[in-house]
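ok trying again, last paste got cut off:
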Amino acid sequence: MRPNPVFASASMSFLGNREKIDAVEKEGLLALGKIVYFFQQLEDDIRRVVSFLIDPEDSTTADIVVYQQSFRQLVDLADSLFAQYPEAKHKKRVKEWRLLLQRARNAGQARNRILHSTFGVSIDEPIVFSRSKATKDSKIGFKEQIEALDPETVDTYLETIATVGIDITGFMGCVFPKWNERGWKREQT
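nice, full thing came through this time. structure:
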């Protein structure tokens, strides 16, 4: 019995590229780890912001509430709670805050898009790490989305996720100086 030529060529290709496949997989898994890491940092930043907005002087009770919330709920709370402060009465600040929170929502969507996928490495050239997401849509039926997670694509995801937490905490520092020091008091003007 002769081997199937398609299987034989794929098998040879696989064996010949094993080291490259392993390297691409390792790089892809490292990239996923970075995405998870930076998203968790963002989520922690949002938690600290919401905890502050609930009670600027003492986090004890606020943290009980905050740590029970999903990321989406935290972002919605940050939006609602910010509006309760006199510092939020400036239209420019409210607009900037809402833009930052929209970026946080976009980061959450990007994180979900990636982490609710299946991952793999192609065995043929070009060897790439990719994600696949299969969904069923009642109008179009089964749909599969495949995206190569090359370094440029990963950098785009990381940019979306990693920078927004820094920008949110920076904004809080401008609007509420020393906000991250419990016992915060409004500066007298």
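cool. The longest helix spans residues 18-54. Helices lie at 5-16, 18-54, 59-66, 71-82, 91-115, 151-175.
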